[in-house]
Amino acid sequence: MEADAVIIGAGPVGLFQVFELGLLEIKAHVIDSLPVVGGQCVELYPDKPIYDIPAVPVCTGQELTDNLLKQIEPFEPTFHLNQEVTVVEKREDGRFNLETSMGTRFITKTIFIAAGVGSFQPRTIKVDGIEQFEGEQVFYRVKDPSRFHGKNLVICGGGDSALDWALNFVGKAESVILLHRREDFRAAPASVAKMKELCDEFEMQFIVGQVTGYESKDERLSEIKVTGADGVTRRLPLDHLLVFFGLSPKLGPIAEWGLDIERKQLKVVDTEKFETNVPGIFAVGDINTYPGKKKLILSGFHEAALAAFGAAPYIFPEKKIHMQYTTTSPKLHKILGVE
Ligand code: FAD
């Protein structure tokens, strides 16, 4: 795909970057490794109130994201979710080749890295050798639930994902065992109550313990070894192990694109354009660093506005770009579809 602008990261700053580019008549593609947009606001605190968005006295992380999506609607961005940007390389014609983990490819004139604290990756289970069963018997995400129907499942974790999937598979899987290292849960109390009810009815089982080893047979994971709070290790036969230990952000492939990095953040050359050391690649939001940087959403919004102006000459080399007010500019009204 040929593009004028590709935004890496659909957090609040990546979303607002769409808006600022849109006002300059630049269409954007947005890529995120998560299946949903909103970045930290949705992944880490969807229901928590934010009080320092200008002119919005209070809104939750999810509400902020919903409003940003509404605000950028006129610009019809194309979202590519569930895929991490893995490759960015400069081409001889000055544009960039960009590729995602799903094989989506772009040739783009500019790139806006709004990757926050990095791409969120599932925390993996720390048992030597168990990674060989990933994707076949050990899973960190459920893409196709029907794959697990009729199977003996062990689900690890104490948060909403673990509880939700455990409840979901009761009655569909052959057996469901929930495994968590303690009796306390981070999940919604109603889900915990439902789980306990189902255990009382022998529909599923809850075990306190941690996976400390495994056995395999014919190159398949046949049993896991679970060490309980009593220090005793027991064997659990299973077909599939589903692990929901939460997500942790990783800078990942961004570190390999030849950009100046300081303490896992991208250095920008100046605070006029928020361009990195590679001309045509801009860094906005939590991922960037410069003297005085504050990791706040409102700082990211300001950076997105200036980065859009900084990028415009790469896209429209002939055009003189003027700043205009959305209140009074007939041209912007037309762009926004509010004539
Ligand atoms: P993020 O929100 O981190 O989004 C980045 C996105 O990029 C992620 O979705 C990630 O999956 C994606 N990504 C990264 N790398 C790749 C890749 N290679 N390929 C594809 N996708 C990638 N700020 C405030 O201003 N006010 C507050 O009250 C406030 N409260 C907060 C409360 C908590 C609990 C936390 C954790 C943060 C809070 N913040 C607050 C900070 C605020 O959330 C961040 O400043 C903001 O989310 C940064 O937005 P961003 O778009 O730069 O990055």
Describe this protein's structure.
This protein is an alpha/beta fold and 339 residues long. It folds into 2 domains: 2-120 and 248-336, FAD/NAD(P)-binding domain, CATH 3.50.50.60; 124-245, 3-Layer(bba) Sandwich (FAD/NAD(P)-binding domain). It has helices at 12-23, 39-43, 61-72, 160-169, 189-200, 297-315, 330-336; strands at 2-8, 28-31, 49-50, 59-60, 78-80, 85-90, 96-100, 105-113, 119-122, 138-139, 152-156, 175-180, 205-217, 220-228, 233-237, 240-243, 247-250, 261-262, 265-267, 281-283, 288-289. The strands form 5 sheets. Strands 1, 2, 5, 6, 7, 8 and 20 form a 7-stranded mixed β-sheet that branches. The chain has a 7-stranded mixed β-sheet with strand order 10-16-11-12-13-14-15. A 3-stranded mixed β-sheet has the order 18-19-21, with no helix packed on it. The radius of gyration is 24 Å and the shape is elongated. The two termini are 32 Å apart. Bound molecules: flavin-adenine dinucleotide (FAD). The site of flavin-adenine dinucleotide (FAD) has 37 residues, from helix 1, helix 2, strand 9 and helix 6.
